[in-house]
Specification:
The strands form 2 sheets. A 7-stranded mixed sheet has the order 2-1-4-3-5-6-7. It has a two-stranded antiparallel sheet with strand order 8-9. The protein is an alpha/beta fold. A hairpin with a 5-residue loop joins strand 6 and strand 7. It contains 12 helices and 9 strands.
Length: 312
C-alpha cells in the first residue's frame, strides 16, 4: 500500500513558499509490518493522487485552490493527529490510490478491509457533528438526510471501516476527539444494528450468518451501485475483480462468491419484512441489493452437524 509520509506533508505545508522541489510524499510499504494510522470519512471536494504528488509543480493559483478544499484540510488535520499520536505514516483513500490505474484500484479495493484491520488506529471524521459530544440520540432535524444520525453512518464504505480496525477514534468537524469505538459500542450498536461484541472484538471467531451480516448494510448507501457489493467483500473474505458498469450484477457476483466459499444457506433468507409477511420473489433466488436483507438481523447460522439438535 502507498502511505503518506506525515512529516513530509506537514513540512511541505509549513514551508509552502520556500519549498522548491517535490519530496517523496508517498511510499510503498507493507501493511503487515508497518505501523500507520488510517482515515475514514465522507467524501466531498477531495485531493487526488496526482494532485498530491504533483503539488509543488502546480502554478501558484492552482496550488492555492487545492489548499482551500475541505479534502486537503482533512489530509493536513489527519497528519497533525497522526504526528501527535507518534505515527510516521497515514493512509487516506482519496490520495493514496492512483485511480487512473484500474489494476491499482482493483488491488486496493480487494485489500481495503485488511488495510483498515492492520491499521494501529482509524480516525473517523464526522464532518456534520459540531458538538463536543458524540450524538447518543437520533436527531431527525439535524441529520434529516441520514436517518437522524451523522452522515458517516450512511456511507457504504464506512461499514467495514467501523468493523475492521481494533481502534476507531471519532472526531467532530473541528477535529476534537468525541469518543472511541470501545467506549461508544452501546450507542454504535443502536445506530448500526451491529452487535457490541463484533464492534469491540471484530468478526473473527463469531458464528454469524451471511444474512445477519448483510442486514447491517441494508441502510448504508454508495454513489456507485457496484460499490454496494464491492464495499462488502472484506466482511465476507471475498475477492473479485472490479467491473464498474456492471450495475446490480456486482451484488449477484458477490453472492455467488459467498455461496461458493461458505455454503451458508441463510443467504437465501432475504425478503422478509415486518409483520411476518413476505415480499414476493421474482426471477432469481439471489437478492438484488443488501436492502433485501433489512429484516434478517436475527437469522442465526446453524452448522450441519448441529441442525438435528436445533429441531429437537
Amino acid at each position: 500500500m502507498k502511505l503518506l509520509n506525515v512529516e513530509v506533508v506537514l513540512n511541505r505545508e509549513k514551508r509552502i513558499q520556500q519549498a522548491e522541489s517535490e519530496q517523496e510524499i508517498l511510499k510503498e510499504l507493507d501493511d503487515e509490518t508497518e505501523s500507520y494510522a488510517i482515515l475514514s470519512h465522507r467524501w466531498g471536494v477531495e485531493v487526488t493522487y496526482e494532485e498530491m504528488i504533483g503539488f509543488m509543480k502546480m502554478e501558484e493559483w492552482k496550488r492555492d485552490e487545492v489548499r482551500k478544499r475541505d479534502g486537503y484540510q482533512k489530509i493536513i488535520k489527519s497528519c497533525e493527529r497522526a504526528m501527535k499520536d507518534n505515527y510516521k505514516w497515514l493512509w487516506v483513500d482519496t490520495c493514496c490510490i492512483d485511480k487512473r490505474s484500474s489494476a491499482e484500484l482493483s488491488e486496493a479495493i480487494n485489500a481495503m478491509y485488511r488495510w483498515y484491520q492492520n491499521a494501529q488506529v482509524c480516525y473517523a471524521y464526522l464532518n456534520d457533528v459540531d458538538g463536543l459530544l458524540f450524538p447518543t440520540e437520533r436527531d431527525d432535524s439535524k441529520f434529516d438526510q441520514s436517518n437522524g444520525w451523522p452522515e458517516w453512518f450512511m456511507r457504504g464504505w464506512t461499514l467495514q471501516e467501523l468493523i475492521a480496525p481494533e481502534q476507531v477514534q471519532f472526531f467532530n468537524r473541528d477535529w476534537v476527539s468525541i469518543g472511541n469505538k470501545q467506549r461508544l459500542a452501546p450507542t454504535l450498536q443502536d445506530i448500526t444494528g451491529i452487535p457490541r461484541d463484533v464492534l469491540t472484538h471484530g468478526l473473527a471467531g463469531k458464528r454469524l450468518s451471511v444474512a445477519q451480516i448483510m442486514s447491517w448494510a441494508a441502510q448504508w448507501k454508495t454513489t456507485r451501485v457496484e460499490d454496494r457489493a464491492y464495499s462488502l467483500m472484506g466482511l465476507f473474505g471475498v475477492k473479485m475483480p472490479m467491473l464498474y458498469g456492471e450495475g446490480k450484477d456486482a451484488f449477484r457476483r458477490l453472492q455467488l462468491k459467498i455461496i461458493k466459499g461458505t455454503g451458508d444457506h441463510s443467504i437465501f433468507a432475504w425478503g422478509t419484512v415486518p409483520w411476518n409477511s413476505w415480499m414476493p420473489r421474482t426471477g432469481s433466488v439471489l437478492a438484488e441489493d443488501p436492502s433485501d436483507f433489512g429484516d434478517c438481523d436475527r437469522i442465526q447460522k446453524v452448522e450441519p452437524d448441529d441442525f438435528g439438535d436445533e429441531l429437537v
